[in-house]
Each structure stands twice: as C-alpha cells, then as structure tokens.
C-alpha cells in the first residue's frame, strides 16, 4: 500500500510540474519564460532590429549590440518601450491582441497600475507551471552577478527562482516551466523570504552598482544586459530587498528627503528640466567622495563621475534616502 501511495504521489508531482498553456485571458497570472522580456508601449511595433528581443529564447545581447546609436535613441525618442521583466517574474495579463498581451509586472511599483508596471509583450514569452506558482513566497535563490549561465539560458542579476535544495557548491532551483537547474553559490544567494535579505549599507549598494560599469545604456532596461537610469537604481535596491518605484519621477517623491550637504553613499540624486525646477527626468546614486554612479543615456554606459559634472549640477532637483544610515 505504501508503494502505491508513493507511486500516486510521484504522478501528481509530475503533473504539477508540467507547464499549462497560457490562454492569455484577462487577470490570468503567468511567468516570464525568457531571460528578460521587453515590454512595449503598443503591440507588434517592433522594428527589424528588435526581433531578437521578442524570440524564445530572447537574444538580448544580439539585440543591444546590433542597434546603431540612432536606433537606440529612437526607442526613447519615440516612446516605444515601457520596462523589462526578468526570468521568473510574475505578471498579470490585462489584455490580449493577437499574439501580444498587455501585462502588469508585479513588484515594479507605479501609479499607472496598482498591480504593477504595464506594457505589451509577446504571449509566447510567458509560461505557467502550477509547481512554480506553488513555490512563490517560499525560499528563493537570487542571482548576484551581472549575468549567469543557467543551463543554456543566460539570466540577469536580480533574477529570483524558487529554492529546491543545495550542495556545498551549488543551489538547485525551479525554472518557470516547472523544471530544475543548478546555479553556483559563487553566482547567487539563497533567502527564506524577502524580509530575510539583510538591509544593505550605502557602500554595499554602490559596490554592487560598480559591477555594471561600462554596461551600455538601454531605454527601459532592467537587467544585466542594459539599464536605463531608474531601472539601474530600482534594481540595485530591489536586489537588496528594498522596494522603490520604477520611474525616476516617482522615485523622487518617495523615500526621505536629504540635504545636499549631508549626502551618504546609496542616496539617490534627481535631475529635472528648467534648471532643476521642472519635471524630473534622470536619477543617479551618490557613490561617496563627491562622485555618483548612473546609467546616463544611449550615447554612454554605466559610469562613475563627479556630482558637479557640467550638465548635471545645473539640473539637480534634490536627493532621497531609502535606507537607514
């Protein structure tokens, strides 16, 4: 009888691990099944050069490296992109048009939608596994290197996957399709819950930010394949268990105001049009010793520069603190 029950349990576990079809119905929950899904302002507006980003698997390195400067600038100038969602991120489907779905990315705070940051993406980049869904809000493994190879898939910093077990050198994790993979302990950290992530020092945030020095800017970027300014600061904080808004204009309204004379590493610095009095359009992180680290624009990469750099000093619009110093 015991063997029979063991056999039945094995069958049930196998069924639970099989991903079910994503019907893409309104309010349905699904999970990102590519290294980073790029969310667009409208469905099916990709240019020829953007197609690698919409494949399964998505080839983000090919996409970002093949774009000319003008093509990168077009993404922001024409308002084509919204944000990105990482492998395993939970989304809620809001709408469907053909092969595209509008989703809200959980964990990316915005006043635009209470469920998460909204945008359009190919439905084929989503999956749903009952087993993966069951492991939400349970122990997880967090990627701590800019990118890491997971089987044949290169995944980004801040990717979170359910913890299964571990050896001396690696963690076994569950992938969004209900299968499993191994990741080196040199590339990740395991936590019982979001609350178990230790609050970082400002110096720790800056140290992690420096891992990305030289990484090319990507409008709407949220990954180790490319960041925009607020995607960079958002990701550094979220990877340490601290939730801040997704966009710089909203980040500038949260946290604790800081006097410019009392800046500490990890504080966020904001910049606005009209000599700092207009709309906030940029954010950087104070790195200490009069320096700041940021992902500036399509012409440049993540860099460490003086706070009083011309072009930024004139537009300074205030600072905010999100951690206890």
Automatic annotation (TrEMBL):
<protein>
    <submittedName>
        <fullName>Peptidase P60</fullName>
    </submittedName>
</protein>
<dbReference type="GO" id="GO:0008234">
    <property type="term" value="F:cysteine-type peptidase activity"/>
</dbReference>
<dbReference type="Pfam" id="PF18348">
    <property type="entry name" value="SH3_16"/>
</dbReference>
<feature type="signal peptide">
    <location>
        <begin position="1"/>
        <end position="24"/>
    </location>
</feature>
<feature type="domain" description="NlpC/P60">
    <location>
        <begin position="199"/>
        <end position="323"/>
    </location>
</feature>
<dbReference type="Pfam" id="PF00877">
    <property type="entry name" value="NLPC_P60"/>
</dbReference>
<comment type="similarity">
    <text>Belongs to the peptidase C40 family.</text>
</comment>
<keyword id="KW-0788">Thiol protease</keyword>
<keyword id="KW-0645">Protease</keyword>
<dbReference type="Pfam" id="PF23795">
    <property type="entry name" value="SH3_YKFC_2nd"/>
</dbReference>
<dbReference type="InterPro" id="IPR000064">
    <property type="entry name" value="NLP_P60_dom"/>
</dbReference>
<dbReference type="InterPro" id="IPR051202">
    <property type="entry name" value="Peptidase_C40"/>
</dbReference>
<dbReference type="InterPro" id="IPR057812">
    <property type="entry name" value="SH3_YKFC_2nd"/>
</dbReference>
<dbReference type="GO" id="GO:0006508">
    <property type="term" value="P:proteolysis"/>
</dbReference>
<keyword id="KW-0732">Signal</keyword>
<dbReference type="InterPro" id="IPR041382">
    <property type="entry name" value="SH3_16"/>
</dbReference>
<dbReference type="InterPro" id="IPR038765">
    <property type="entry name" value="Papain-like_cys_pep_sf"/>
</dbReference>
<keyword id="KW-0378">Hydrolase</keyword>
């Amino acid at each position: 009888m015991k063997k029979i029950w063991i056999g039945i349990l094995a069958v049930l576990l196998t069924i639970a691990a099989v991903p079910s079809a994503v019907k893409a119905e309104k309010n349905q929950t699904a999970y990102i099944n590519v290294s980073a899904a790029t969310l667009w302002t409208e469905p099916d507006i990709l240019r020829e050069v953007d197609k690698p980003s919409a494949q399964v698997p998505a080839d983000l390195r090919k996409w970002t490296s093949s774009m000319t400067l003008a093509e990168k600038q077009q993404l922001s100038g024409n308002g084509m992109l919204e944000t990105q969602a990482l492998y395993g991120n939970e989304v809620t489907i809001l709408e469907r048009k053909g092969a595209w779905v509008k989703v809200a990315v959980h964990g990316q705070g915005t006043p635009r939608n209470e469920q998460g940051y909204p945008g359009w993406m190919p439905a084929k980049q989503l999956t749903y596994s009952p087993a993966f869904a069951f492991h939400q809000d349970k122990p997880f493994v967090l990627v701590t290197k800019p990118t890491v190879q997971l089987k044949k898939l290169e995944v980004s910093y801040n990717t979170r996957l359910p913890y299964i077990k571990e050896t001396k050198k690696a963690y076994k994790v569950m992938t969004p399709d209900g299968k499993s993979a191994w990741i080196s302990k040199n590339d990740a950290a395991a936590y019982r819950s979001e609350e178990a992530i230790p609050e970082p020092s400002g110096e720790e945030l800056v140290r992690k930010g420096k891992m990305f020095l030289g990484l090319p800017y990507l409008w709407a970027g949220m990954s180790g394949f490319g960041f925009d300014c607020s995607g960079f600061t958002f990701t550094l904080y979220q990877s340490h268990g601290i939730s801040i808004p997704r966009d710089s204009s909203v980040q500038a309204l949260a946290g604790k105001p800081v006097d410019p004379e009392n800046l500490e590493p990890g504080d966020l610095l904001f910049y606005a049009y009209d000599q700092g009095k207009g709309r906030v359009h940029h954010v950087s992180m104070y790195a200490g010793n009069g320096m700041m680290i940021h992902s500036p624009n399509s012409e440049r990469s993540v860099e460490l520069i003086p706070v009083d750099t011309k072009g930024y000093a004139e537009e300074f619009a205030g600072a905010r603190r999100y951690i206890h110093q």
